[in-house]
Amino acid sequence: MATINASTKISVPKKKPSIAVGAAKSVIGAKKPSGTAARRGSVAPPLKPATLSNASNLARLQESDSAGQIAHVRDLFRQALGEHTTLNLGSPKAASTTRDRAGAAADVAVAAKTLGVRWILKKCGIVDEMQRMLFPGGIEEFLARNADNESEMNGNGSTPMTGGLKASASAVSLASMDEVTTVTSANSLGTDTKRGKTTPANAREGCLLVIRALCQIVGKAAESFVVGAFLAAALDECASSSGAIREAAEDASTAIVALANPWAFRTVLCPLLLQSLKSTEWRTKACTLERLEQCASTASAQVYKMIPTLIPAVGNQVWDTKAQVSKGSRAALLAICNTNNNRDIKKTIPAIVNAMCKPSETNKAVSELMGTTFVVPVDASTLAMLCPILARALKEKLAIHKRAACIVISNMSKLVETPDAVAPFGSLLVPELQKVSHNVQFEEIRDEALKALANLTKALGDAYKLTDEDDQAAEMANEKAEVEAEQKRIEDVREAERLKEEAVQKREEEERKKFKEAMDAQRELTRLEAEEAERQRSEEETKREAARLSTKGGTG
């Protein structure tokens, strides 16, 4: 018989869990897109038509007359918005799902590709209806509210922002729509009331699905119709309370950016993306940062030219309280900086981005830059990446870090392309270099600061005047005038106080004099009264004495 003691080892075989056929295996540490609970991936699959994928149905649509084609396309669009239409009347009516709306949206895109994009979107009124759903108050009001977003958030007495890109949208009542253009239903009135959204949720999701389908199926022919204000609407809807709308908005914004011509980034996409970063909704900002990261790959040359504008705007989001926004801003900064093809700093870009996001990494980035030999000309985009970090390094406590920053500035300034490129950063670096050259106790470091200051001054040229005698004379004259004016003001104040004090003293003296006169008069009256009383008493005593004497003489 076997015995079991403390040293006995018992192995129990573990049964492996069975995995269903076709089930997706979870990956530990897999990255999930920000702002969504469960997505099928970072890139949405292309939409598939529900009915027009059949060649016979597409042929019947082509053979129909103009009125029939318009009616058919409008019915497809109503299906995309979640409406019950005259199509498929024989089939049972069921609640519209996202899959149904996506199929109808793809049908609209196939019809646009077959019959002509402009004819479908304009003649059938698809664009007008999408604008009505996504911009109830009109595009002008939508963009105007976007432009006022910053001033409202700064507190100028107006109503603060409560939604995404705009505070609210004035509703277009159902009664104001005619029979042809009515695309809403009382059964689909799911609204984001807290964000001022009054358009039905299914309608907004359907419009976003149509935009995505046009980008994916029609392609470049639809670029002029969807790239622009619809991107702002998609970013705005990323903050919706509905998960389906958020997913559709993210997919639509991704499709718009992928479709847009790279040359449209500077004038169309960049202003909208920068404006959406001022939103109060964190999901809108997170999606915007993802789109900026996408633009860095689709329009790298244009993003590179906009680095001086993009880095401050994106860098401010690093300190956002939402982890999704902070993490997205770091990824966007890295993608934006990687568009810089300057081979001198290409290897140090990760360290530069780390220094932007973590001030404690500044010295490490400057140390790597100090070992860089600058050969390629330095332009404004490269300076926009380096100057904020170098200015921060000049403020470090340890003198050795100041020396490293001075060496980098000196080497960098020798290869600046134009004075205009470095002019915006003159006021950032020059004062700090002057402080180092005057305040640091080590002569070697002061010499490096003076050398860097000389090279930077030479690079600045006339763009930043350091020793202009006329400017200095004018500044000294202004300071002298201000000092004289201040002295005169002080003298006037003192004279006014002296006159006021003299008036008070004079008034008090007069009051004391009047009081003294009153007291003297009162004492005189008291004395006269006492004398009168004494006189009367003497007269009475004299009378009494005379009466006593007369009485005594009569009796004797």
UniProtKB/TrEMBL annotation:
Residues 494-547 have a biased composition (Basic and acidic residues). Residues 494-556 are annotated as: Disordered. One of its GO terms (cellular component) is cytosol. The keyword Repeat applies. InterPro entries: ARM-like, ARM-type_fold. It holds the Pfam family HEAT_EF3_GNC1. Keywords: Repeat. GO terms for molecular function: protein kinase regulator activity. One of its GO terms (biological process) is cellular response to amino acid starvation. This is TOG domain-containing protein. It comes from Phaeodactylum tricornutum (strain CCAP 1055/1).
